[in-house]
Amino acid sequence: MPASSPSIPSLAAKPAARAPRRDGRVLHKGQQTKAAIIEAALGLATHIGLEGLSIGALADVTGMSKSGVFAHFGSREELQISVVREYHQRFEQEVFYPAMAEERGLPRLRAMFAHWMQRTSIEIDSGCIYISGAVEFDDRQGPVRDALAGSVLTWMAAMKRGIQQCKECGQLQADVDEDQMLFEIHGLILALHYEARFLKTPGSLGRATTGFDNILARYAA
């Protein structure tokens, strides 16, 4: 897919049973090489950001020639978009699909946040592309920003749907502002990254969990 038309798969449109398998796939040699480059690029991006990625840097890390790396992507922009797609797919596998196995309503919403927290706790050391990318591309236009923003908005839509289902199940107050509740939940994750990764504040994970419990208690039916 050309870089000018990035595509992010929709969490909202995929039932858990159709989750794509990341193991057991038979890849051709060219696909294996490209997958290895994306793996290396994702590792770099989590530490130095998407803007730090370059064909030359990937050539050094993978031991390939610049022309060899370039042949798989065609441009630095397409490389960045490929990394965003890969990150999004892993986020689905680790956060979204496991939560879909839980009962509809609060159990599922709690699971979505719990898996999100679990991934966040790992990224406190490695870095989060969603958050670092927002800093890098917040004032820019283009396909990389579109792919990144589309990925985040897809996850936000899935979380909002989880809140709506809680209301439908009678577990939240009927007049709960779904956007407000989502804003507060998302704010916990952003605050956690700032407190734990930047300020190194002890107990940040526990405070984020307590904050989520407080939000549910405040909006409970």
From TrEMBL:
Lineage: Bacteria, Pseudomonadati, Pseudomonadota, Betaproteobacteria, Burkholderiales
Region (Disordered): 1-28
Organism: Pulveribacter suum
Designated name of the protein: TetR family transcriptional regulator
PANTHER family per UniProt: HTH-TYPE TRANSCRIPTIONAL REPRESSOR NEMR (PTHR47506:SF6), TRANSCRIPTIONAL REGULATORY PROTEIN (PTHR47506)
Pfam families (UniProt xref): TetR_C_13, TetR_N
Tagged with keyword Zinc-finger: no
The entry's DNA-binding region: 54-73
Biased composition annotated in UniProt, kind: Low complexity: 1-18
A molecular function (GO) term: DNA binding
Sequence ranges assigned to domain HTH tetR-type in this UniProt record: 31-91
Keywords: DNA-binding, Transcription, Transcription regulation
tRNA-binding among keywords: no
